[in-house]
Every structure is written in C-alpha cells, then in structure tokens.
Write a structure and sequence with these properties.
Structural class: alpha+beta
Number of strands: 17
Low-confidence stretches: 187-194
Distance between the termini: 72 Å
Largest sheet: 7 strands, antiparallel
Mean pLDDT: 85
Order of helices and strands: HHHHHEEHHHHEEEEHHEEEEHEEEEHEEE
Number of helices: 13
Strand content: 15-25%
Shape: globular
Length: 458
C-alpha cells in the first residue's frame, strides 16, 4: 500500500487560537491566594497558594521574588517569543483551577503530604506541578503558532521550525529501549559472552614504582583496542574509545582513600585525505596530545539518538556544522569519525534517553547506514549490521565494508592515543607519565607506536 503524505501539513505552524486577554496579577491573587493567618482554612488548602508562588515570574509582583518554575522554566521558554510572559503565567494559573480542575478538596492533602520525594533517578511532583507543566505546553503550542519568535541574544526575529529550536523537549519520543542506567553497555551480551570484545588484560601492578612509571613495554596493546574480532571471525575497528585499568585494592584497604596505580587510554580516530597521509602521520608522531587540542565530537543540543542525519531537527542543526575541520597547528583538515547521538536532557526520567558515540555523518552517508532494531546498532541497506556500540564510548565498525568505503572515497584513517600512567597518593597524583601514540592502516593492518614520557610534577 502506498501512502501519500503531505509532510508540509505536519509541520508548524498549526491553526491554534492565541488568547488575546490575560488576567491581572491582582485579580489572580484576590481569587486564588489564601491568607495564611486565617485559622479557619485547613492547612492542606494552602497548596493552592503554592501553585501561585511556583508560577510567579521575575518582577511580576513588583518584587525580586519569583518561583523557580515560573522563572527558570516557564519564563525561560516563553521569553523566546515576543509575548507578555507574566500575562501568560496568570492565564496558566487560571487554567489550572478552572480548566484542568485542580481543587484543594481533591488534591491539596496529597500535595502537602508528598513534599519532595526525590533521588537522582526518581522525582515525584505535586499534582499542582503536573498541571503547571500541562499549562506550559498548551500555551507553548499556541504561542509558537501565532507569535513572533526572537533569538536569545537580540530582538531580531528568526524562523520557527519546530520545538527543538528552543530546547524544551524533555522526553525521547523515538525510544525503543528502556534502561535506567545509561552508562551500561548498549549490548551487554557482547562483553559477557564474547571475550574478543573485552579490554586487554593488565596485571603488572607489583613492579617497583620507579620502574613501573617509566615502563613502556608493559603497556596494554593499542592494536588490540583498535581492532577486535567477534565469535564469527569478523574484524571490527574501534572509532573511539576510553579505557582505564586501575590497581585492585587489597583486602582491608579503604576503597576510596588508598594509594593506587592507574593507566588510561583515550583513542580518537579521524578521516584524512589519502594523498596527505604521509605528511600528516609524520607530523602527528611529533606531537603531544595532552590538553586534548585535536577536534572531538560534540552533541547537537536538542536531538535524540535516532533523529540524527534525517529528521527536520537534525537537518536544521546541520546548517551549523561542518564535515571537515582544520587542525590549525598542522595546517591540514580532518573529518571526525564519530558524533554524539543526542544532547543533554536533564528532565528526562523515562530511562529512554541514551547518549553514545555513533558514526559521523560522512561515514553514515558514505556507507548507506540506517538505524537497527536495537539502540546503538546500525545497518546497511541490506540490513547487515555494519556498526555497533559496545559501550557509550566505543563505537565499532565492520572492517571489511569500512575499508571499501575508504578506498571508494579516496580517504584514510588515523588514530591518536592520549593517556597516562599515574600513581595516586591518598588525595592527589604524585607521579605520572604521559602516553602519546599514532596509529593507521597499512595494507589493511593496524600499525603504529606509542611513546611514554615521564612528567615532572611541581
């Protein structure tokens, strides 16, 4: 069956009606604000006044007092349009009581007893607060349809394309996986059942500190981090990874207050033009990457993980990004191989929001990628999995098809390595060596070297 969809009709603006008159603050207070000195009013009923306080915008009552929701949520969002924010706040309060049906007989006792039941992962809000959110989003829809938008730094008008423009989305509507701990592996079975995806083993913790801190020979193999083999014998290349090894504590040692040794690697990869490879590799081998001055992936502020590269929100953000970036110190261009899948959404409590490194746009388009059935899985047009994220910081790409892409586009790849060997005392680092390295592909094989330099601490 062929569907004929006029996508233009799905995009804003819509045909909602904008209110033209708004209640005055004085009228709102007279009607809904209760007198705390009146002993005849049941104590729970004062939750009604809590809504008024919470919805107060800055200077709306001719004082510097305001509610956190009114100032930092309601006013912050709606100030992006040329509107009377205080009038909209008063209208929202009126709607909460007269349109949505908040009444102290039904809701006040619950709200009073609730208080703040909040942890890092769980937050239960007042019923009145839920109505505040409903009012905000209903008004936001009407305002975005009917009112003139302005940029955050001036009164210059700009085009409104969708709700992502003003960073007010707070739930991932494209969710396919629910996971409360977003730091867990995206594909836990890969690390649990397949030894080839486990980081290289390291256990040389007993060497004397003076010898250990300068020992280059015992460093974990970077080649085994960059290239991995799955149980079917397929080779995968890591586009980005952060790996650390920490000396295990002995029985009886305090977990958090003890001296220990640690090694960490940060491995980044870049696409380069094949005809510039020799000069770039020679230059990079002379560099110290400490300070992380090479280009790194960034997240688009208001994108969800499955929106990248195709949705109107993503295409809108693309106008601000470039595929190739200049390395000013070396006078050459590189293209990032990864891109953060999503922006930060601090209000999202669904467990659906995941941030991880995924293939960059140049690789995505060049290898004809599409989203797989699981988060962090990417397929080609034949539904073959060609990229997968085994952790938020480690996207892998199928080596065979990736090499074909590089050859077809006349590109090559280089990996930079930054890391440390360090000894941490009771409260601070007391000894350290800096690790730098450069790796590439020669005749399809990972080659390169790392250097270790003792750092003198002040």
């Amino acid at each position: 069956m062929t569907l004929r969809v006029e996508t233009k009709k799905l995009r804003p603006p819509y045909k909602s009606e904008m209110p033209t008159t708004f209640p005055k603050t004085k009228d709102i207070d007279e009607k809904y604000k209760l007198d705390y000195k009146d002993d005849t009013i049941p104590r729970p009923y004062f939750q009604q006044s809590t809504i008024l306080t919470s919805m107060t915008t800055e200077y709306s009552r001719e004082t510097g007092c305001y509610g956190d929701f009114g100032r930092y949520v309601f006013q912050r969002v709606l100030s992006n349009w040329k509107v009377d924010v205080n009038g909209l706040s008063n209208l929202a309060v009126k709607w909460i009581f007269e349109k949505y049906g908040y009444h102290p007989d039904k809701h006040a006792e619950y709200d009073q007893n609730l208080g703040y039941t909040q942890t890092e992962d769980v937050k239960i809000e007042r019923i009145g607060k839920k109505y505040q959110w409903i009012a905000l989003h209903e008004l936001l829809g009407k305002v975005s349809d009917n009112c003139e938008i302005r940029t955050s730094w001036s009164n210059r008008s700009t085009e409104y394309k969708g709700i992502w423009n003003k960073y007010v989305r707070d739930i991932n509507i494209g969710c396919i996986d629910i996971e409360k701990d977003s730091t867990k592996e995206l594909e836990p079975e890969l690390t649990q059942e397949n030894e080839y995806f486990v980081k290289p083993y390291y256990n040389n913790w007993d060497q004397s500190l003076s010898d250990w801190i300068t020992n280059k020979q015992d460093l974990p193999s970077v080649k085994n981090i960059i290239q991995k083999v799955d149980k079917e014998g397929q080779q995968w290349l890591s586009l980005d990874s952060y790996i650390k090894w920490k000396e295990p504590k002995t029985i009886g040692e305090d977990k958090y207050h003890r001296p220990y040794r640690k090694i960490w690697y940060m491995v980044k990869s870049y696409l380069i033009h094949k005809n510039e490879k020799k000069e770039i590799i020679e230059w990079l081998n002379k560099q110290d990457f400490y300070g992380r001055w090479m280009p790194e992936s960034e997240s688009m502020n208001d994108l969800f993980s499955r929106e990248n590269y195709w949705t109107p929100a993503s295409l809108d953000e693309d106008t601000k990004s470039v595929l190739w970036e200049r390395v000013d110190r070396g006078h050459f261009d590189v293209a990032l191989t990864t891109h953060k899948s999503a922006g930060e959404f601090s209000h999202d409590k669904s467990g659906a929001h995941r941030i991880y490194e995924m293939p960059s746009k140049i690789i995505w388009n060049g290898m004809d990628m599409q989203y797989g059935k699981k988060e962090g899985i990417f397929q080609n047009s034949s539904n073959k999995i060609i990229s997968r994220c085994v952790s938020p910081d480690e996207p892998l790409i199928l080596k065979e098809v990736f090499l074909e892409f590089l050859n077809r586009k006349n590109l090559d790849i280089v990996w930079t390595v930054l890391g440390e060997k360090l000894f941490v005392g009771q409260n601070h680092c007391v000894d350290r060596s800096i690790i730098n390295g450069v790796f590439t592909l020669e005749k399809g094989e990972v080659t390169g070297q790392i250097n270790l330099k003792k750092q003198t601490l002040e």
